[in-house]
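User: Predict the complex.
Assistant: Input components as received:
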Amino acid sequence: MEALKCKDVIVEFLADYLDQALPPEMTREVEAHLRACAACMAYLNTYRRTRDLIGRHAAQIAMPDEMQDILRRFMLEQMVKKNP
Amino acid sequence: MERHAARAYRVAFGITRNSADAEEVVQDAFLALYQKADAFEGRAALSTWLYRVVTNAALMKRRGRRHEVEVSLEAQLPRFGEDGSRAGDMSVLTADWSQNPEADLLSRETREMLSRAIDALPDAYQTVLVLRDVEGLSNEEVAEIVGESVAAVKSRLHRARMALREALTRHLGPHERSSWVWEWGKRLGLWKR
């Protein structure tokens, strides 16, 4: 099999590699390329960190307290309507 | 039910990037939910339905608000040479900011930049990113919610992440040098391929 190029690793296999969803042989091919290519290794690390930062960034999004109270009241009203 | 509300709000805000719009979307979704509550056979069906209603309503709000033309995603993706190797300044290509101090990565400036970059993604890409990387849903669940194939979801997610990685690299990594440095190093075989 021809050795993988940067484009193959980054565009085709990176996401599945991180999800551990590649067959063992392909995983070995990707890892061989990563060991030899500093640019792709940096890409892998920063791609993984990007995914992590997206999640952490979003974890700070919380429903405002006032909105929670409105929804809570709304839910109670609906329950009372259904079961008077 | 409060857990559902919190999730619905995160998705609505993730797509609209506006708290007033997100609140309206969630309220409308819960009103619809109570009107149709008897139609759901299980929690999974309800959860998927709620995500779908919130996603669609949030996209409508977002489309109504957006005035600027979306930046082409192609321009935000990594570039490759004809031989399949990375193209660009090697100091940028090998820049690994993943180990930068947490204070840098989580600074207000970085968070605002990331938020703007997420907002600039085309709708279909942003939606998949929010459902997958923010909500942690599986590719299959996201495919069901957005009505696309799993392959399309995976492709959009990867492209969205790549675009955001480029934006973060421009923000956190070294500044690009002139292309002659890259060409010169390539000719001398300095860059490992």
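The longest helix of chain B spans residues 43-65.
Let me know if you want any component modeled separately.
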